[in-house]
Design brief:
The protein is α+β, with helices and mostly antiparallel strands. The protein has helices spanning 12-19, 33-39, 76-81, 83-88, 90-98, 102-107, 110-113, 168-174, 188-191, 276-283, 302-318, and strands at residues 5-8, 24-27, 48-51, 61-64, 67-71, 178-181, 185-187, 213-219, 226-232, 243-250, 253-259, 266-272. It has one domain (5-318): 2-Layer Sandwich (Uridine Diphospho-n-acetylenolpyruvylglucosamine Reductase, domain 3), CATH 3.30.465. It has a five-stranded antiparallel beta sheet with strand order 4-5-8-6-7. Bound molecules: flavin-adenine dinucleotide and iron/sulfur cluster (SF4). Flavin-adenine dinucleotide (FAD) binds next to strand 2, helix 2, helix 6 and helix 7.
């Protein structure tokens, strides 16, 4: 376990100011951050951990002028069980419910969920055993020649094939949510990605090292639209999505955001929902399996077929 100092922020702006030293990280539920500190996954772990949990009024779910507002410190359990979210923004409630286990959902927050680090097995190896280029400027990608069965089927941003591990990310992208930080308001569709040059190579999103998520804003669905989240993982509980699909159907059209298949949620709008199977084929038409020759029985082709079925099931259920 890495030794670290502990500081308490009493506002999001104070947390952002404390982050400016470039050697600190904020902590919300701690279910991802502490896992990384214990495993010593990265050479860039924080020297100081800044606690967000004492910030007043940072955990809430409310509707204002037709917009659902969720404080960054709201737990996944609170989102999954909230009546308004369940009824009107079902895809988000189901995505929050799909995360890990009850214990982790009771601790884990929505802010932490969309700011968690990648789950690539090489990136997460203890004591930085595989110094890949998400952590080291002179590193390489081990998935290209190694185990790639959990990785992207849509290519890799900047040569990294780690998928976006967040369950709520595809739901927020499908819903057209906004993410309000201490610096700006992001469209969820623009929020996720990676940029080696900006020194945020270990992030799954574009936020700066001194930027903190304050609130998620979700516009109301069109009248008559229905939504759902489908997830496939090897285990029924406590497992990240191998493939997931956040789907909204409005009449003959669907919006689909795929999870677990690319570095970011993969968004498709105006999908023809009249033929659910064809919609699944359409979303994966450009998918290409990885196969690395140096490891036996190693390909992620299975993700493509599973993904098509998830989209088909979601649309069939919603029509
Ligand atoms: C066994 C296990 C299984 C898991 N399964 C899943 C799963 O199925 N699906 C899934 O999506 N996740 C899963 N997770 C990951 C994690 O539990 C969740 O993503 C959780 O929502 C993280 O929230 P947290 O509040 O605990 O984040 P923390 O651990 O507190 O923080 C995570 C990261 O986000 C940053 N951060 C936290 N809050 C903010 C903020 N407001 N602004 C900016 N940065 C912030 C932290 O600095 C840290 O880098 C799993 C974790 C474990 C240990
Ligand atoms: S897929 Fe990305 S995180 Fe995994 S080893 Fe390759 S560069 Fe590193």
């Amino acid at each position: 376990m890495k030794d670290f100092k502990h500081a308490v922020a009493t506002s999001f702006d104070e947390a952002a100011t404390l982050l400016a030293d470039g050697k600190s990280a904020v902590i919300a539920g701690g279910t991802d951050l502490i896992y990384g500190m214990k495993g010593m996954h990265s050479p860039n772990l924080a020297d100081t951990v800044i606690d967000l949990k004492r910030i007043p009024d940072a955990s809430y779910i409310k509707e204002e002028n037709g917009v659902l507002k969720i404080g960054a410190l709201t737990t996944l359990t609170e989102i999954a069980e909230n009546e308004t979210v369940l009824k009107k923004y079902t895809v988000l409630a189901e995505a929050a419910k799909a995360v890990a286990s009850p214990e982790l959902r009771n601790m884990g927050t929505i802010g932490g969920n969309i700011c968690q680090k990648p789950r690539c097995i090489y990136y997460r190896n203890e004591h930085d055993a595989f110094p890949c280029f998400r952590k080291h400027s002179d590193g390489k990608c081990y998935a290209i020649t190694g185990v790639c069965r959990y990785h992207s089927v849509f290519g890799g941003l900047g040569g990294c094939f780690a998928v976006c591990p967040s369950d709520t990310a595809p739901a927020l992208v499908a819903l057209g949510a906004k993410i309000v930080t201490t610096k700006k308001t992001w469209e969820a569709a623009d929020f996720f990605g990676l940029d080696q040059k900006k020194f945020n190579g270990e992030n799954i999103n574009w936020i700066d090292a001194d930027e903190v998520v304050k609130e998620i804003q979700v516009p109301a669905l069109a009248s008559g639209a229905k939504s759902t989240y489908k997830k496939y993982a090897f285990r029924k509980a406590i497992d990240f999505p191998l493939v997931s699909a956040a789907v909204i159907v409005n009449g003959s059209k669907a919006t689909v955001a795929l999870g677990g298949v690319y570095n970011t949620p993969k968004l498709f709008t105006d999908v023809d929902a009249s033929d659910a199977a064809a919609a699944g084929e359409f979303c994966f038409a450009k998918a290409k399996a990885m196969k690395s020759a140096q490891v036996d029985n190693n390909s992620n082709a299975y993700k493509i077929q599973i993904g098509k079925v998830l989209v088909k099931r979601a649309i069939t259920e919603l029509k």
